[in-house]
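Module 6 notes. Inverse folding takes a fixed backbone as the condition and produces residue identities as the prediction. Think of it as a translation problem where the source language is geometry and the target language is the twenty amino acids. Below is one complete input and output pair. Work through it position by position during the lab.
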């Protein structure tokens, strides 16, 4: 038994180190380490209040107020968690929210009806219901003072919430769209994603109407008052960098001054996802952009 242990452990460690970046296997083997680090990091979490916006158990959001009084009009971030549109809960992302509340933002962490029992048609309905409830519960809230953001699937939804004006118009007719979005490791051009049951559960076949409705690149360009930041690792093994770069190329053709694309050399999906805990570079890029965007909007 001891001999087996002495032989197998070094082999496992060597195999772990040799798995190439940019592969799904590399991302999968690093996921437990990310979860563990998030648990033991001791990162402060934002206080929150849970509020429902529908009758389904996943139709709720956490409201996280600013960590300190701030001058000027209220500013808001709607931050969507990742998890392939099927896993994760807002409750696990209060440390992410704290990064924003410390900057004076009121943060909304939404949940929504997940795949595979639901698809993007139902998720889009949830986005509309969420906005309707925000107007009801928070009289000081306004779309024009709000940014949307998220990691992976969350960044995908944040981009759609910002660019697809039919979502907000269904909730608040003739309202001004959100002031911008940030998307980290997000699939923003679904045509560049490899076929998978995950994508099909969300959006159906690639030639269908729902797929087009769920594809953020279809809703470019940005409005003149909107700002956007996209950050993506060039060795992402879950969401190919092409799914962000294709979106960025089209966005920069039409709204270059409002749009920033940061390609992180050697960045993987999970190294970008670790931005609140371990990835200082991505964290600083995001915070600097938020500060600059706030200055532009006031």
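Target side of the pair, the amino acids:
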């Amino acid at each position: 038994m001891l001999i087996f242990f002495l032989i197998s452990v070094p082999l496992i460690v060597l195999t772990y180190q040799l798995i190439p970046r940019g592969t799904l296997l590399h991302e999968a083997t690093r996921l437990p380490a990310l979860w563990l680090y998030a648990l033991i990091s001791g990162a402060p979490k934002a206080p929150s209040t849970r509020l429902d916006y529908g009758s389904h158990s996943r139709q709720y959001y956490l409201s996280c107020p600013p960590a300190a009084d701030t001058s000027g009009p209220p500013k808001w971030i709607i931050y969507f968690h990742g998890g392939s549109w099927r896993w994760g809960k807002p409750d696990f992302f209060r440390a992410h929210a704290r990064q924003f509340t410390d900057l004076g933002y009121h943060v909304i962490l939404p949940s929504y009806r997940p795949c595979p029992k639901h698809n993007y048609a139902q998720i889009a309905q949830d986005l509309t219901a969420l906005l309707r409830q925000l107007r009801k519960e928070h009289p000081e809230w306004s779309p024009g003072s709000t940014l949307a953001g998220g990691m992976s699937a969350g960044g995908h939804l944040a981009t759609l919430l910002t660019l697809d004006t039919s979502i907000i118009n269904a909730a608040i007719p003739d309202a001004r769209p959100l002031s911008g979005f940030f998307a980290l490791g997000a699939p923003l051009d679904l045509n560049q994603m490899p076929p998978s049951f995950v994508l099909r559960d969300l959006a159906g076949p690639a030639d269908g109407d729902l797929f087009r409705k769920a594809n953020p690149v279809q809703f470019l360009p940005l409005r003149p008052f909107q700002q956007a930041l996209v950050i993506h690792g060039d060795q992402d093994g879950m969401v190919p960098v092409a799914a962000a770069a294709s979106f960025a190329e089209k966005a920069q053709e039409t709204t270059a001054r409002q749009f920033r694309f940061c390609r992180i050399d050697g960045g993987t999906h999970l190294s970008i996802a670790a931005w609140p805990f371990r990835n200082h570079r991505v964290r600083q890029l995001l915070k600097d952009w938020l500060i600059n965007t706030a200055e532009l909007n006031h």
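Reference fact for the lab report: Residues 4-16 have pLDDT under 50 and may be disordered.
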